[in-house]
Amino acid sequence: MPLVKQGRITTDLFVHVADGAELPGDGAVLVTAERFLADPEALLRRAGKVGVIWPNNRNLDDLVPHLDRLATVALVFPTFRDGRAYSQARLLRERYGYDGELRATGQILRDQFVFMTRAGFDAFEVKKDADADAFAQTMKRYSVFYQPTGDGRITALNRRMQLRHSESAGQ
Amino acid sequence: MYAYDELDRTLINERVSEFRDQVKRRLSGELTEDEFKILRLQNGVYLQLHAYMFRVAIPYGTLSSKQLRRLAHVARRYDRGYGHFTTRQNIQFNWIKLAELPDALSDLAEVGIHAMQTSGNNMRNVTSDQWAGVAPGEIEDPRIWSELIRQHTTLHPEFSFLPRKFKIAITAAEHDRAAIKIHDIGLRLHKNADGETGFEVLVGGGLGRTPFIAKTIKPFVSGRDILSYIEAILRVYNQYGRRDNIYKARIKILVHELGIEKFAKEVEEEWKAMGDVGLTLDHAAIEEVRSRFSYPAYEKLPHMPDELKQAAHDPLFERWRKNSVSAHKVQGYSIVTLSLKPVGGPPGDATAEQMDAVADLADKYSFGEIRVGHEQNLALPHVAKRDLPPLFKALDRLGLATPNVNLVTDIIACPGLDYCSLANARSIPIAQELTRRFANHDTADLIGRLHINISGCINACGHHHVGHIGILGVEKNGEEFYQITIGGRADENAQLGTLIGPAVPYAEVADVIEDIVEAYLALRDRPEELFVDTVKRLGVEPIRERVYATR
C-alpha cells in the first residue's frame, strides 16, 4: 500500500506494530490507541518516533494531552463512505493545533484526496497504486472552494469580496 | 435570479471533469461497481429498474428560461423526451446512458446547472418556498440564505460522507410552502424582538420508515451565525449519527434517541467550542450574495386591468384564474402555478416541448423566470395581470392549465414500481386513476383543498405521511396492497396522518379514496371546512366507520 506524503509517493518509515507483538528496539512505530494509552510514557521514552492509530468512533479527549509528542496520528476510514475521521481531522488541526503528520488510512481512493487535504490530512495510505500515482494531478482538480477550513485556501466568497474591494479602490 | 459568476462556473466545470474521470474509471474496470456506486450517488446517478436515473438540482426552485431550455435539450438528446419534477426541487431523467452522462452534465454546466449532491449521504439540494421573493408578507427573500447555504454545503470537505442523506429547507413566509418540518434541518426566517433577522432552527424531521416532525432546537439564531450553527449540528451528527443500520442513520433517529434537549446541548457545546472559524457572515458577505440576485423592473400597473375584467366573462378562464393565480407582492402582478397534473397523466412529468414552450412563455410574460415547487408543479412568478388571458390560452394549448392546483387531483407521487428498484408497488397508475375519478372540475372545486400523496414504498418519496390523504404501497404475498392514512399535512402545522383501516388491494384503492371523500363531504360542518380540518375536528373514527362499514 503506497504512502503519499508531501504530494509524492514515499517510503513509510513507520512500522505498524500489532497489539501484543513485540516492539522493535528503535525506529518509528505506529500502534493502536489501546496499546498507546495502556502506557504512553513507556512508548514515548523509547528511541524512535511514535504514531497512534486513532479509531473513528473514539472521542479525541484521551489523545489531546499527548499530541505534541506524537510523530503521526493515523485516522481511519473503514470504508470510504464512513466520514467520521474528517471531523476528527479538522478538530485535531483547527481546535487542538496539532501540527504533526496527519495520516489517512483505510479505504483511500483518489476521490477523497481534495476533501482530506482540506480537512488537514497530509499523508495518505492509498489503496491503489494508480490512485497514488495520480495524487498530484488529482489535487489540481479544484481551484474554487466554498468553505473555510484550516488549510487556509481562500473561499469563493472572500475572493469575490476582495475583487469587489480592489475594483472599488481602483475607481 | 442568482447570477453564477466565474467562480461558480469554474467549480461546476471542475466537478464535471472529475465525474468524467470517475465514469471513465468505472467503464475501464478500474473502479468496482461498489466503489463507483458511492461516487455516482454523490452526483445524482441512481441505478433503477430499467436504466440509470439522473437527478439534476434546481436549487431553491429557481430556473431561468435558458436553463429550462437546456433541461429540455437534455430530455430530448439523452433521454426519451421528458423529465420528472420531484418533491425536492429536482428534475429526474429516467433513461440516461452512463457513457453519455458526462456530456449531459457538461451541457448543463454551460447554463449553471449541476447534479452535485442530489443523492448520496451528503447535504442535498437546499430547497425553499417556490414563491420566494414574490410572496406577499415575506420577511425577506429566503433565496439569499438558500444560496449562502447552497455554497457552504457544496463539496463540503468534512460532511460529504455523512451517516445518511441530509436535507435543508428554508421558508420566510407565514405559510410554509417548503415543508420545513419534514426536513433534517428546517429554517424559518423571522425577526426577533430587536428587529434582527434570523432563523428558528428545527431539526430531525423526515419521513421514510420512521417518520418524525422536526423539533425546534433553537428559537433564534442570528443570520450572521447561521452557517456556524449548521456546521455545529452537522459535526455532532457526523460523529454520533448511527452508521450500523441504514434505517436508523438519519439525524431524526439521533435526535429521537438522545432527546431534543440533550441533542441541543451537544450542538450548543460544539458551537461554543468552535469559536471564530471564518463562518460568521458579516454585512458585507451577505450583501455580496444579495447583490447577485437580480429582480425584475416591475411596471406600475393597475390592480384590476381592463383585460382581466373582460376575460372574467369566460368561465373557463375564471375557473383557472381562481384556482391557479395567486397574489403577488407587487400590485398589478400575479404568481401563476402551472399544473403538471393533467387528468390521466403521471404527476410532475413535463415533455421537452412543454419545457421549451414554458421557457418561451416565461420570456414573454415572467421576466424569463420559472419556479419549481415541492408539489411537483411549476410557477411563473412575475406575470402582469393584463397578460393573464393570453397566458391562459397558451397554457391551455400546452395542457398546463388544468385548474386543479391544491385540489384532489393535484397529487404528489413518487415514480413507484414503474421505474424504481426500491418500490413495492405502483404509484403513477394509482394517481392516474384518481385523476380520472375526480376529473369533473366542479366536483373537485366542491371538495376544496385536498392533498393526496402516494409513495410506492416505505421510503416515502411521495410524502404519504403528510398527505391529507396518504397512500403507501406495500407488498403482501407478491401482490400490491395500499395502506391509507388521513389527516397528515406538511405545512406550518405539519402532522403525520393516521391509518384509517386495513390495507386494500390495488384495484380497490380508488374506490376507498372516493368513499373517504364522500364521507368527508357528508361530515364537514360547512363547505369551507377543509378535509384536513374535518379530520382534525372529528378524528379518524367517523370516517373509518363510513368507509369500512360495507367492506
TrEMBL record, chain A:
<protein>
    <submittedName>
        <fullName>Uncharacterized protein (DUF934 family)</fullName>
    </submittedName>
</protein>
<dbReference type="InterPro" id="IPR008318">
    <property type="entry name" value="UCP030820"/>
</dbReference>
<dbReference type="Pfam" id="PF06073">
    <property type="entry name" value="DUF934"/>
</dbReference>
UniProtKB/TrEMBL annotation, chain B:
<dbReference type="Pfam" id="PF03460">
    <property type="entry name" value="NIR_SIR_ferr"/>
</dbReference>
<dbReference type="InterPro" id="IPR006067">
    <property type="entry name" value="NO2/SO3_Rdtase_4Fe4S_dom"/>
</dbReference>
<dbReference type="InterPro" id="IPR005117">
    <property type="entry name" value="NiRdtase/SiRdtase_haem-b_fer"/>
</dbReference>
<dbReference type="GO" id="GO:0046872">
    <property type="term" value="F:metal ion binding"/>
</dbReference>
<dbReference type="GO" id="GO:0020037">
    <property type="term" value="F:heme binding"/>
</dbReference>
<dbReference type="Pfam" id="PF01077">
    <property type="entry name" value="NIR_SIR"/>
</dbReference>
<feature type="domain" description="Nitrite/sulphite reductase 4Fe-4S">
    <location>
        <begin position="119"/>
        <end position="272"/>
    </location>
</feature>
<keyword id="KW-0408">Iron</keyword>
<keyword id="KW-0479">Metal-binding</keyword>
<feature type="domain" description="Nitrite/Sulfite reductase ferredoxin-like">
    <location>
        <begin position="346"/>
        <end position="396"/>
    </location>
</feature>
<dbReference type="InterPro" id="IPR045854">
    <property type="entry name" value="NO2/SO3_Rdtase_4Fe4S_sf"/>
</dbReference>
<keyword id="KW-0349">Heme</keyword>
<dbReference type="GO" id="GO:0051539">
    <property type="term" value="F:4 iron, 4 sulfur cluster binding"/>
</dbReference>
<dbReference type="InterPro" id="IPR036136">
    <property type="entry name" value="Nit/Sulf_reduc_fer-like_dom_sf"/>
</dbReference>
<keyword id="KW-0411">Iron-sulfur</keyword>
<dbReference type="InterPro" id="IPR051329">
    <property type="entry name" value="NIR_SIR_4Fe-4S"/>
</dbReference>
<keyword id="KW-0004">4Fe-4S</keyword>
<protein>
    <submittedName>
        <fullName>Sulfite reductase (NADPH) hemoprotein beta-component</fullName>
    </submittedName>
</protein>
<feature type="domain" description="Nitrite/sulphite reductase 4Fe-4S">
    <location>
        <begin position="408"/>
        <end position="547"/>
    </location>
</feature>
<keyword id="KW-0560">Oxidoreductase</keyword>
<dbReference type="GO" id="GO:0016491">
    <property type="term" value="F:oxidoreductase activity"/>
</dbReference>
<feature type="domain" description="Nitrite/Sulfite reductase ferredoxin-like">
    <location>
        <begin position="52"/>
        <end position="111"/>
    </location>
</feature>
